[in-house]
Amino acid sequence: MKYFGLILTFLLAVATCKAYEEITCEENVPFTCGQIDRLNSSNFEKDFIFGVASSAYQACCTGRGLNVWDGFSHRYPNKAGPDHGNGDTTCDSYAYWENDIEVIDELSATGYRFSIAWSRIIPRGKRSRGVNQEGINYYHRLIDGLIEKGITPFVTLFHWDLPQVLQDDYEGFLDPQIIDDFRDYVDLCFKEFGDKVKNWITINQLYSVPTRGYGSGSDAPGRCSPMVDPTCYAGNSSTEPYIVAHNQLLAHATVVDLYRENYTHQGGKIGPVMITRWFLPYNDTDPDCIAATERSKEFFLGWFMGPLTNGTYPQSMIDTVGERLPSFNSNESKLVKGSYDFLGLNYYITQYAQPSPNHVDWDNHTAMMDSGATLTYRNASNHTIGPLFTEDKDDETKNTYYYPKGIYYVMDYFKTKYYDPLIYVTENGISTPGDETREEAMLDSKRIDYICSHLCFLSKVIKEKVVNVKGYFAWSLGDNYEFGKGFTVRFGLSYVDWNNVAHRDPKESGKWYQKFITAAITNPAKQVFLRSSLTSEKKEKFADA
Ligand SMILES: *[C@@H]1O[C@H](CO)[C@@H](O)[C@H](O)[C@H]1NC(C)=O
Ligand SMILES: *[C@@H]1O[C@H](CO)[C@@H](O)[C@H](O)[C@H]1NC(C)=O
Ligand SMILES: *[C@@H]1O[C@H](CO)[C@@H](O)[C@H](O)[C@H]1NC(C)=O
Ligand SMILES: *[C@@H]1O[C@H](CO)[C@@H](O)[C@H](O)[C@H]1NC(C)=O
Ligand SMILES: *[C@@H]1O[C@H](CO)[C@@H](O)[C@H](O)[C@H]1NC(C)=O
Ligand SMILES: *[C@@H]1O[C@H](CO)[C@@H](O)[C@H](O)[C@H]1NC(C)=O
Ligand SMILES: *[C@@H]1O[C@H](CO)[C@@H](O)[C@H](O)[C@H]1NC(C)=O
Ligand SMILES: *[C@@H]1O[C@H](CO)[C@@H](O)[C@H](O)[C@H]1NC(C)=O
Ligand SMILES: *[C@@H]1O[C@H](CO)[C@@H](O)[C@H](O)[C@H]1NC(C)=O
Fold it and tell me: Any signal peptide, and if so, which residues (predicted)?
């Protein structure tokens, strides 16, 4: 019996240790992890960056040359959004950039990911056709303003808003001429801003422009096969996505090479942004579903990660896509392989994968069919993957659902499969309906649930799998134009009133994020001070104290 006490102590120690180490991240509805005392920034390492993100076309509007989203949204208003919304006006971050900085500071965010509009600094696409000094000055002011507040800029060089003139000249990324024009533009950015910007993102979501812009035709420039969508002005949905993706990779790698050869003295880091998803088998005991799940990872992630890590496309893609898949010559392969210091990973959703035939009916074939998988949010037992992500009020079968644990699997996958890269989560967020009242939109509990549950799994995977993640950027800073959705949805942690776009008011999610970030600050006076900056009323109280 004398050992009983010892055993009990041991058991208690194990239990306590486990309780301490394991953060409970709920996997089922409803999420209740929005409690700052349980989950806050102290669950991450000290210098972890908590930021917010935006992009140029979505946030503004004037002071620049036309880009392909201007062209696309005016040519196909219904594709730009059910409300025919576009980026002509939106939240006007060109005029109100100081308000943006103010609200980022109010949220206590330590990073801001924004994009430079190519056509704002080179309105006619090619550097030889002249630069716009006003546009350059604008970005200097913005960057200086952020640094002054201790906010680290993460600058995206290309967030889909190609100068329209380059689409007209040679169809943009469909032609390798894009590589030289992109290099000239990026060289100007390094030269102008590189002494202040230490985190460069080359291209946003390598997967998106090839598949949506040239496959389904649902994004700018709006190319696809006539049988896929007769309104597309031209295109070939089974071949062009691969060419565009290939040229994107070469353009990306070329500017990384430029940075490494000519700008190392600036001491920054550079990488691309991948849109990620996780995939689970539609039926987890069916070998065909399991195979479809693995193919989905290869065709969605490996398409870009194969070249970036090994200089080659995945063998499964080479086998399936055949001669429609371009190949890298030995110099290009060397250029692309290892062309990143970090990976920016955007994560929103996970889907179930099941096999589907890859139609060899070339008229209406798309590159997206080559993976031979159909993706859904319900599995073979009709189980929905998680809480509601987007609701279709007319057709329930079109609802989408989210899966916070997917971020855990994605991070672990990149670590184990792609040689433990330095990672920043460069986007993560959820939309709420644009037709909510201001009061409803401000309350915003759905966004808190989404963000905190993903942060919970992110913290868990960093601890359990030792993934090298150094930052997280919530999408988005404020409400803005959403690609393909117009103003029918809101993604912001701060509210923008479309009748008075100068204001950005933190929603409850923004206030939650602020508390989450500042909770790790151990000095209570500083905490009170930071919180008080949210309302002037509280600020006065603090001054009284
Ligand atoms: C932050 O979380 C930790 C545990 O993860 C907790 O000990 C601490 O009290 C929390 N901070 C605040 C201000 O609630
Ligand atoms: C670096 O700059 C020099 C001089 O402008 C230029 O010739 C060279 O091509 C640049 N390197 C790269 C990799 O672009
Ligand atoms: C569907 O998902 C649920 C929840 O994860 C699981 O219990 C069930 O086994 C899955 N069904 C199939 C057929 O894989
Ligand atoms: C899942 O797959 C297994 C093996 O193919 C099959 O026996 C089972 O009926 C499937 N379950 C469902 C719900 O379709
Ligand atoms: C990596 O590239 C080499 C050729 O350089 C090729 O033989 C090999 O199959 C590639 N590995 C993968 C996993 O694609
Ligand atoms: C590769 O680069 C070398 C040296 O720059 C050059 O001589 C050769 O022609 C290039 N090969 C190809 C296939 O472009
Ligand atoms: C797309 O290009 C391929 C290869 O050139 C061709 O076989 C196919 O018919 C084309 N599809 C359309 C819709 O033009
Ligand atoms: C187009 O694709 C669908 C499957 O996605 C197929 O059912 C249909 O027969 C194909 N052909 C035409 C001409 O629509
Ligand atoms: C799956 O569940 C939904 C809602 O729970 C229901 O409307 C639908 O009919 C179900 N589908 C099947 C195939 O059972």
Answer: 1-19
